[in-house]
Amino acid sequence: SQNSHTAKTVSRKSLCILNNQRVSGTENMKIILVFLFVAPLALSARAEKDHSSFDSAASPETKSRFAMLDDVRILANGLLQLGHGLKDFVHKTKGQMNDIFQKLYIFDRSFYELSLQTSEIKEEEEQLRQTTARLQINNEEIKNLSQEMNSKIEDLIQNKIQLQEKVWGLEDKVTKLAIIQPSIQETKEISSLKVFVEQQDNHIKQLLKIVEDQHVQLDRQHNQIMELEDKLNHIELQELAENSFTEEQTEPEAIPFPVHNATAVIYKSDGAAPDCTALSNSSIRSSGVYTIKPSGSEAFDVYCEMKFGSSWTVIQNRVDGSLDFNQTWDAYANGFGELNEEFWLGLNKTYSITKQGDYILRIELQDWKDNKRYIEYAFSLGGPETDYTLQLSRISGSIPNALPEQTELRFSTADRDVDIINDFNCPENYLGGWWHSECEETNLNGKYVAPRSRGRLDRRKGLYWKPKKGRYYLLKSTKIMIHPTDLKSFY
Known about the structure:
Oligomer: single chain
Largest sheet: 12 strands, mixed
Distance between the termini: 112 Å
Helix content: 40-55%
Number of helices: 8
Order of helices and strands: HHHHEHEEEHEEHEEEHEEE
Number of strands: 12
Structural class: alpha+beta
Strand content: 5-15%
Shape: elongated
């Protein structure tokens, strides 16, 4: 019949399309609906034909039944192929949707983290601006006060000149008194003048002390303003995902310190030089390993670095993490490492040098973008009976201070923590011996941690410099050196 022929034609065309896999999911649905609509028509037409020819010969009836079965097989095979195609399409679509959802989740999480970091930087920038404004106001007040003090000093100088003239007059009178017995009235006048001179002298001393204190305070305020202005100018250049320095500070270039596996030349001095500076004064002008002999100590080797026309004694150097600084108290006392690579000179040796006089402590820092900073302190180091107590006073530098000033800092290690703050063992948690006062401010002897993938670093892990108010400065290399305080010859 015509309906049966139409069903066969539609079935064969659909199978051809499915086998070539050129139809989409929407077209597959349309083909299913066509099959569901045409199949009953084809079956109904075949049933009518069979009923009308029921009395015909046996051979045509058998052929009709086989033809009907062929139609059903074709239809079933088409539906089966269509089902497999739809199943594959559903699985593929489901996988693509899962990938899209996963990427959306990762994007939302990254955007949230960046938002938090952006908010933190904006808050810090606003605080810095407010602090800078307050310091500028204080600076103006101090300048005005300094001008007033200078005016008073000039008046006091004039008074002092007048008093000096009176003193000279009194000396003449005293000379005369040695010859002539003074009268009672003259004696009273001399006593009153003496008291007046003493009062004026004390008053001048007090004013001079006040002026000196004001100048010290003015210098500190000026340094703080300069540091804050520098940080404000460069804060927008800092990356949100990484704590690092701002721009490299311009300063004289030092002779590069030997890196790992470098070969250093060991020099032997004929004299008994107490430190590297004394060696440089005896015509030695190159960096390297030398032998020194501090007063009252045995001779030992040190690394001397030429800088600013003189030689500094290096007491700590870290460049690549090749040496484990998580050492015991005895190791930190006696020293460890190789002088031409990474090393810690030793507290005993450092103390034997610094007890000879006044020294400057210089710390040089380098971040993971190879930007460099430094800071210098006047300092004193106690002996083993004080657990090598350190006292610092900042002199200059290109980075905010991260070590407490005018405070006794005792050295401690994981196996000998002499400064337990709130029962929290700092070296055990932060690794490496150091002059800890709190367990966050800085850690130059901590575990060396290189950046992870994409150059990111974790805060409070590895080497870092942490001012009390400010960001973490994550470090690639550190160097600590000492030099006598007389630097006028080469600064």
